[in-house]
Design a protein that fits this description.
Two copies of one chain form a homodimer. Helix content of chain A is about 30%, strand content about 20%. By secondary structure, the first copy, chain A, is of the alpha/beta class. Chain A has a single domain, classed as Spore Coat Polysaccharide Biosynthesis Protein SpsA, Chain A (Alpha-Beta Complex), CATH 3.90.550. The first copy, chain A, has an eight-stranded mixed beta sheet. In chain A, strands 8-7-9 form a three-stranded antiparallel beta sheet. In chain A, strand 1, helix 2 and strand 2 form a beta-alpha-beta unit. In chain A, helix 6 runs antiparallel to helix 8. The interface between A and B is large, with 42 and 42 residues.
């Protein structure tokens, strides 16, 4: 009956028309609503300028790490390394310890070249000290710290593996550069690498330190470092060296075990020669190694004993990079 | 005056002579005593037939291990391996599990070729079962067990290093032969080595078992094995296989961690081809690997879940055999 409105009287037709159109409109709205619900979501990867919801906050403090990188007079290397390290899996944040006193941080440049995968914080220092990187930075939110020298490039594969090893040995310094100390009959210690005779524990060599310039360690040790005797700070400041040896003493004393776990790197590079600054690292100073032996002996005095312990455990990744690297002739 | 005794009267001369000779005798005895004290000790290595005081009892139960070697139809290999293993550092005792039912143990021959560095006990079995080696032998005094197949030769260097690694990971099976399981979309597990696709955890490969035929583990696990469900024994007896997979399930369940720690061997050899017995090991049976996949699935039923966990940690000895094996290009 509603469809033959021409035949109906004026007022009745008016009301019926109203009802009709209302029904049609409601039906159309329902259909439109249904269609909208069924439409696929718009993919936002076609909009590269749109800032994504940062995901880092959701990374648990246990499953990620903070990179702390101190830098002096090698900003070109710093920026090159930041591009590499900013995309390492499980990285939470980067803290750059800016030892270029009085020089502006490259924050503008950094921001102009954004967006970046993770936040980077520039900590401006007032004095150029080696131990600046061992502060207990308030920006540090993760349990794990990755400390890297500003001229050292380690592959993402190595870092991902070493981080997984650290998670199994969280009280140790897990890293890529092993060193040792040797006792001599005179009671005076010497510091060195594999060229030094092994400590005499059977076959092979031993290490008693893992350097923190390419290593993971627990952020709690930065807290502990704030409570070291003044003599330790004085030693590091006097030599502008040995902060890493001091950290190994701290960790070894704390655990009663070897301070470090050595992970053999597949791809580790020193980029020093690539810098335009003309600045070479501290380790080129003539007295560098002698200083380090000196530091070992001073620290033994301060600690009233030798807490460093030897280890000969060398860890590699099973089946990587060569998937049969564990195979034997049997 | 005493020296002109010819001039003295008889009785006086007699007493004086007595005194004189007494003094001379006493002086000679003192000189002889002094000389004897100063003489070097007689070295007893010139007397090979002299039995030395056994030193093994003084080796602490923590610093030494017991070798358990099961043997079937390969007595020539057994004896060759006994000569090799009897001199391994830190070995406390050898337990030979004699699966040659009804056959005399070679004890006479063993004794006639003595002395031996350590005691060897032959445990005569009544039934030829693969799981005979997993008994809780009363002769076992050490915390550590080294279990070896009777056709496997591992160098002393590898064993000494792996023992030191076990001492750092005493709740794990520390050994030289890694294997893994894979889950498939159907929920059915498969067993294999590196030819199987990795479980998909990023780079490289993973292992979830370390075979006990060349491994150190805690003797407490032999106690634990006596309390396994009957179904586990039935499975091992049915297949004459899989006792090692069962041990890995046991250890993984107990620790909640990967059961094994893989130490990459420098020198491991299978001597199978050298036997005169003509007997080849069980692993040559056509169904051997399929059986092991079958065992994995059966054990998952018995355990009501999959306790095995993956690891990609591969341990080698720092600076051995190549003293610079940890060196990198940096």
């Amino acid at each position: 009956r509603y469809f033959h409105f021409c035949k109906l009287p004026g007022r009745v037709m008016g009301i019926r028309l109203l009802r009709f159109t209302s029904v049609v409109i409601i039906v159309l709205l329902l259909v439109a609503g249904a269609l909208t619900a069924l439409l696929p979501n718009i993919k936002d990867d076609k909009m590269p300028n749109l800032r994504r919801e940062p995901k880092t906050q959701s990374q648990s403090a246990l499953d990620s790490f903070t990179l702390i990188m101190q830098t002096y007079n090698r900003t070109d290397l710093l920026l090159k390394l930041l591009n590499h390290y900013q995309a390492i899996p499980h990285l939470h944040k980067v803290i750059v310890v800016w030892n270029n006193i009085g020089e502006k941080i490259p924050e503008e440049m950094w921001n102009s070249l954004g967006p970046h995968p993770i936040p980077v914080v520039f900590k401006v220092q007032t004095v150029n000290r080696m131990r600046n990187r061992l502060q207990n930075f308030p920006e540090l939110e993760t349990k794990a710290v990755l400390m890297m020298d500003d001229d050292t490039l380690v592959s993402a594969h190595d870092l991902a593996f070493a981080f997984s090893v650290w998670q199994q040995f969280p009280e140790h310094i897990v890293g890529f550069v092993p060193r040792k100390h040797i006792s001599t009959p005179s009671g005076v210690y010497s510091y060195g690498s594999f060229e030094l005779q092994n400590p005499g524990f059977g076959n092979g060599d031993q290490y008693s330190m893992v350097l923190i310039g390419a290593a993971f360690f627990h952020s709690g040790y930065l807290e502990d470092f704030q409570r070291q005797p003044e003599a330790v700070y004085a030693l590091i400041d006097e030599t502008q060296n040995c902060d890493d040896i001091a950290m190994n003493f701290l960790v070894a004393k704390h655990t009663g075990k070897p301070s470090g776990v050595f992970v053999k790197p597949v791809d580790i590079r020193n980029l020093e020669k690539d810098t335009n600054s003309g600045y070479s690292g501290m380790w080129h100073r003539a007295e560098h190694l002698l200083q380090r032996s000196y530091c070992v002996n001073k620290l033994v005095n301060i600690y009233d004993g030798m807490p460093l312990k030897y280890s000969n455990i060398m860890i590699s990744q099973f089946g990587f990079p060569n998937y049969a690297n564990h195979k034997n002739k049997m």
